[in-house]
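[Meeting: bench + compute handoff]

Bench side (C.D.) handed over the final construct sequence. Compute side (W.E.) agreed to return the predicted structure before the next meeting so the bench team could plan truncations. Sequence as handed over:
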Amino acid sequence: MQCACLVDRDGYEGDWEEAAKIKHVISKTPHKCVECGKVIPPGTRYLLEIVKWEEDDYTGRYKTCPDCESLRDNLICSWQYGSVLDDIMYAIEGLPEDGIPWAAFSKLTPGAKDYVFSLIEDMWAELERNETE
């Protein structure tokens, strides 16, 4: 089976399972998604990752909205916090037409699909503009 990942940074060398506490929680107050920057409103289920970074002796609390989690889970093998949307944009720009992982796109949340398909539509519009010039 071929990997559907668009992005694979492979940047963390430690044991992720030991470094991170990962759980889904329901927001009681508004939070900001680490990836897209949108507000996660109260009552929304989101991904909370508490990561102990050994090299910096720093503990980060990363909150990810459902749409960005869907993008990460279905299109990215490994990532850096805060770069998922840019990574996907650059990966899609570099894909040949026959390299688009349609099966992976079908697993995305509606909001995540909207993001990816708007990127593709923007690329097509750019190609069309370039062809008419």
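W.E. noted at the follow-up: Residues 30 and 41 are 5 Å apart (CA to CA). C.D. will use this when planning the next construct.
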